[in-house]
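Explain the record.
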Amino acid sequence: MTEDLSPAERYAAARIRAAEQATALAPFRELYEFELDPFQIEACQALEAGKGVLVAAPTGSGKTIVGEFAVHLALAQGRKCFYTTPIKALSNQKYSDLVRRYGPEKVGLLTGDNSVNSEAPVIVMTTEVLRNMLYAGSQSLRGLGYVVMDEVHYLSDRFRGAVWEEVIIHLPDSVTLVSLSATVSNAEEFGDWLDTVRGDTEVIVSESRPVPLWQHVLAGRRMYDLFEEETDHGGRGAARREVNPDLVRMARMENSRTYNPRERRRGKMVREADRERERRQRSRIWTPSRPEVIERLDAEGLLPAITFIFSRAACEAAVQQCLYAGLRLNDEEARQKVREIVEERTASIPGEDLHVLGYYEWLEGLERGIAAHHAGMLPTFKEVVEELFVRGLVKAVFATETLALGINMPARSVVLEKLVKWNGEQHADITPGEYTQLTGRAGRRGIDVEGHAVVLWQRAMDPGALAGLAGTRTYPLRSSFKPSYNMAVNLVQQFGRHRSRELLETSFAQFQADKSVVGISRQVQRNEEGLEGYREGMTCHLGDFEEYARLRRELSDRETELAKQGAAQRRAAAAGSLEKLKPGDVIHVPTGKYAGLALVLDPGLPAGRANGHRGGFEYYDGPRPLVLTAERQVKRLASMDFPVPVEALERMRIPKSFNPRSPQSRRDLASALRTKAGHIVPERGRKPRSEAADDREIARLRKDIRAHPCHGCDEREDHARWAERYHRLQRDTRQLERRIEGRTNTIARTFDRIVGLLTEMDYLRGNEVTTHGKRLARLYGELDLLASECLRERVWEGLNPAELAACVSALVYEARQADDAVAPKLPSGKAKAALGEMVRIWGRLDALEEEFKINQAEGVGQREPDLGFAWAAYEWASGKGLDEVLREAEMPAGDFVRWCKQVIDVLGQIAAAPGDGGEGTTVTRTARKAVDALLRGVVAYSSVG
């Protein structure tokens, strides 16, 4: 090709190649055995040009290469790079990757409970650690050149998302930010915000997967393609994806197999034919069992596979079902290799704990190439599963959705058992974003030619809805940012109240809120133009018609108000008269379907009202008497049948033998009713005098209207119609303006309320942070203010380490499912008293939050402390064995370790929190001892929390 170029063109090409070789990207590209994708090159070039980047690309597309280039640039420039991840497992994985490339002396790790080489030029850390460093003004920030935020779409997480925005807002301007995100539909909007708060930011979006993904439905023995590829014959040759008609037919056939009572009357021969057809249909369509699915995938060459099951217990059950079915996916050589790796990785676990942890059953599954993966597992066990899966020694993993959160564990196939999951409150359909995240694991770059997503057939499945899930590749990124107490004191301490307020108004949450009012603002502008036209239409040459229209409106409103009051009074009088009725009263029903003479069988009063006092239950619309009409009908009447008060016209004895269900009884009693009271003519109630006739305000308004100059205008009613339109449009416009006001400055207003409460409690004095506030600034967590108040009121003074661990557990633990039926077991003595005092303090804080309009439903404020882990923390810190603690806690080992790690984290904060005048020194020492007491056994040797 170069022979075809002119000398000038060859010279220009040589210049370009030389320029490329002179960049930092050229040696970086040589570190990889494959060519970088265009989006990776574009992002790396933007980074080298000094710009920040936002890279939005599908799972498994290799966007972390851009983050690794930031590490490469930092080392080349003699600067630091912090690589942040949302979870500790990801931090550990990325730390291992970077150590392999750059060596242990250049890479460090900070994850809250792990600190390795913390002064290295490259540090991998969880995002919370970086947030805490920024607020503390850590010396480690000196020389920081790049920050990589992996999985930045986590900022939409309602529990932890605010941390990402805090970091982005507070990073020094000199730091270049690399944001790596899943494919989101509003990447440009997020990029616009980053451009606003961080400066020049390049947005690079790639929606193409490096490995094509095929979608399937497995029904019975057959694997169906979800889509039928059809070529567009319009000349462009583009592919149009249509739902497989076989699946649509199957769904229609299943839905038609509903029970029809009329079929019972059909002939025996027809029913036999139906049953035979039903048997044939069922022989083709059923939901295959878990072992059948794995066997089918193995036969099709689609292993290794991850099967997502949205239940921990079901993941464990799936492994057992495969073992009972005799599945073996590994040969003898692979079994030996598995055993060697497992024994090496678990060598530090005491033998007595292995039995408690279900080690031998777990090992049996691993040797056969089958494993579970979920948050309830011991972290060490999860790490082993991940390693064996990546090595190809485990070929079938049954996992909860937590596996999809970024851990590098790709498979050839992904299986989804169901498209419904429990979201903590109800069973809900998975979203397109969740479907994309889960199926994104299918297809290993450089290994597989294509990936496969398999959904199991379920009754009532809608192929069209599934196609909608599979066809929606992106989902919007929504901010979950909310100010917290800790955030407020840290901001005021660093910037003062006014500057802090301005900073919060730069959050992505406020950016999105402000953007959402643009359309409303345009509508307000259009309305204001319309108001001007209406104002011209109602202009009167005799006077101010707007004033005249206001008088007419006030009159109409006053008349409506009085009419409502009168109606309410009449309803109350009618209800009062109904309450006085007794069985045997003869009444005249004034209106309705059953108007006329009636005998009261039961007054229909709520329990406890018969003697004039309220009972526990009331009808929503007052008494509902049960009556027998003169036409022999027994009916329960409602208050609407009595628009006016009712009185007993006569009294009758109701025979004890009367049965309202007996036609004869009804006929006899109705006849007696007509004989007794048929001749009585009820008094026609006089229509009460209208209150409007005697109302002074109405009289004044009518006088003012008659005296107004516009009252005599010949075109008065035309003007009035324009005035009414003007009033309606003005009312609508004010509502829109209130909506705008409600959406703008929302974050700043919440901050103001938090600052007001903290000022009330003496954490802040204007721009000054008090001693109590400085301690709160070092307490990070959902119950930061409660922890600070407990230290302030010395609730934990005099506790031993195990008792303090029990109390601190209430600040972090949150049960997966609320169980209010059984009170949690608590340690006795001082710990129990301290826990009770913590709940009392929370109650006081809750009342104060209500006073300052701080709403927990909006994600701001202090939830009630959960005492459900107190006994387990106390027992473990007291030195009890793992078997006993897990048995009494009824908790999986993985959950137990995770909660212990979180308790240790808060205890560390308490130990490091500044006291005031020596206060809290005893608690500080006890907190350190409690950390040592908890950090043993499975908690100590689990590297991931």
Observations:
- Residues 545-579 form the longest helix (35 residues).
- DSSP finds 35 helices and 26 strands in the chain.
